[in-house]
Amino acid sequence: MKIEAVDFFYLAMPEITDEADGSQDALLVRVAGGGEVGWGECEASPLVSIAAFICPMSHGVCRPVGAAVLGQRLESPADIARIAAQVAYDSMDLLQAPHTFSGVEMALWDLLGKKTSEPVWRLLGYERCFAKQAYASQLFGDTPQQTLERARLARAAGFVAVKFGWGPIGRADPKSDREQFLAAREGLGREATLLIDAGQIWRDDVDAAAARLPDLESIQALWLEEPFNAGALSAYAALAKRSPKVKLAAGEAAHNTAMAEHMMLYGGIGFVQIDTGRIGGIGPAKAIADAAAARGITFVNHTFTSHLALSASLQPYAGLEGHRLCEYPFSPKTLALAITANHLTPNPVGEVSAPDKPGLGMDVDLSRLKPYLQAVDISVNGQSLYRTPDLIQ
Amino acid sequence: MKIEAVDFFYLAMPEITDEADGSQDALLVRVAGGGEVGWGECEASPLVSIAAFICPMSHGVCRPVGAAVLGQRLESPADIARIAAQVAYDSMDLLQAPHTFSGVEMALWDLLGKKTSEPVWRLLGYERCFAKQAYASQLFGDTPQQTLERARLARAAGFVAVKFGWGPIGRADPKSDREQFLAAREGLGREATLLIDAGQIWRDDVDAAAARLPDLESIQALWLEEPFNAGALSAYAALAKRSPKVKLAAGEAAHNTAMAEHMMLYGGIGFVQIDTGRIGGIGPAKAIADAAAARGITFVNHTFTSHLALSASLQPYAGLEGHRLCEYPFSPKTLALAITANHLTPNPVGEVSAPDKPGLGMDVDLSRLKPYLQAVDISVNGQSLYRTPDLIQ
Hints:
14 strands, three-stranded antiparallel sheet, homodimer, alpha/beta, nine-stranded mixed sheet, TIM Barrel, Enolase-like, domain 1
């Protein structure tokens, strides 16, 4: 089939706060071809990612993403890889391109899966799809008491693994952080897996991060996530050496496979976290899952938004039995839940699996998205380059 | 003073071709404060970079670039660094942000220099500004004969160093490339410095690049630039080991200091090429110049557009006497030349210097830009977020 159309739907909550909650808006992508549609989702900044699909060409290697996608043939996974390579080369000087293409690429897999009646994980070469232990991913409360209550809620909802991130961590002294850590552990009880996400707060300050290690060890945190900014490889390596018990986790910012590989090769991390909505989609994420497995590093998805994004993020490591954890958006905004009619609900032992259905196996529910739709209009010299399509076509 | 306004002017040639010629469009930035204006230029994709300045916030660390710039205090270089750090953190999930901020940051230096009556290189801490050997940077011809003629033209114009890049190189067999290389050397004569730019054509294929090394040695190329894509550090390192005579040059794609540092640390390059219009501006470029000097790697600017961008790209290493080469746009499009009323013309021995004038020392000539101005209009939900300002205000 031919890729006939690519449409974007910018969705947002009525109010956007400065919380580090990425589920407050979304960029949904619909790809049409051969009488079928596929769905994907870009992470993040919807308006900018739309612009990168439709912008005028600047020169030969700064072309809009759309130029390498529209009209292309799509019959097999090799076609997706070919299109991805063309985007990477033709848009090498267009920085936003990988974020834009990530959602498009997901939608290409979804479309191909639907046309061939295969789940994406099978198209990726996996024979089996293993259930993953869902960890409830959420933000720290403003106070330790709030964090304690959120921990109890997650346990009451059946989660045996929970992550707390961002919020006040690193913004005051180590003692304040300790109170948050202790509250999280207290709320979870002794058995649950506890993960801590520092949200890059120490930039590249190894000592500041290391000052928290004794407390992270005492609460038996499995990992410390993103203590530093995404490029601070030597800071990661230095902290990893000082932290034999609490492993480091990072990688969500990777917008190509090289960045994730460098984090594994030079950063000393124990867990590599990949956002299929940023790294260029499912294909690059699968390449990192394979590379992680070969190195003894554990692959984990990075997902804080919809169940469409969650399904996409489960595909790349669905067949890797030993890579057990899955980030599960615990309290996303209503918008994120409205994107799909079906949801990947954890089973009684707190596990989720990539759907055993064609494509990504998620039913996008356009009728529920109308309240969130942002009407975008971009024109150059009076000529409209992009206008939000009607939701129902 | 306060940063009162930031305006963008998207400029383009009437026709944009698929040549790898980045001077076909430009995004000019004007920052106003304290009764003065400063000018900068973003590389590349004007429409997308504008969108990253004005887009609605997605969440706490995916804010528009403008949020961290407008209304800020600007009294000293430390203020520019503080604003840059805030953009880096608050827009960490907005991939295009560094390209957008690069032009803004240049304009902040220009504004600060004008207000303090100091050239930017002095604000950066340099006592002296050393002349650089300008190399005429241009594309390979479609045929060896065309390349030979371009080489002769550059020599006739007084250049003693010339770079050829992109075009047919790597697209056929090594023998075809050899003919291009020989033509370039023949046109230049034996004495001139010759540089070759492969434009990432071999992606990460070390053997394909290595197949060209004997010919590059025989024409005495000083460097081979960007044989691989920007993240292929291990391919760079492998080729560097196989190429004792022809040094590798790379770094133009770096959109933060970490990327450039990784290229120096892990890629085995001899020359690090920084585009101040991509890496986040003049401050980060200066940090890489210092790091390069400390490692015995030579810093070179990457500039293929206007003389405003050229002045900005000269500042970060103006005071480093041993870092002698300067990329000089040899045949840019008329648009690029029209951006400034004054130009950095090489002296009789082919040298250029950063101006010894306040700020960047370039006079932006708005009156000549009208034919190139692209009127952009971006709205969300009927509310205009960006509209191209009038050229003359």
